[in-house]
Design goal:
about 40 residues, mainly alpha, 1 helix, about 0% strand
Amino acid sequence: MSGYTIIEADSMEAALSIAKACPFLDIGGSLEVSELAEMPGQ
């Protein structure tokens, strides 16, 4: 399975806390959390 979800959080720690509650982890799934960078001129 693959896909993505965009969340808004005040910090990386807050984003990780949200990600840790994902039910996909309960069935052996894995997640990657990364910061979204705004592209200049967009």
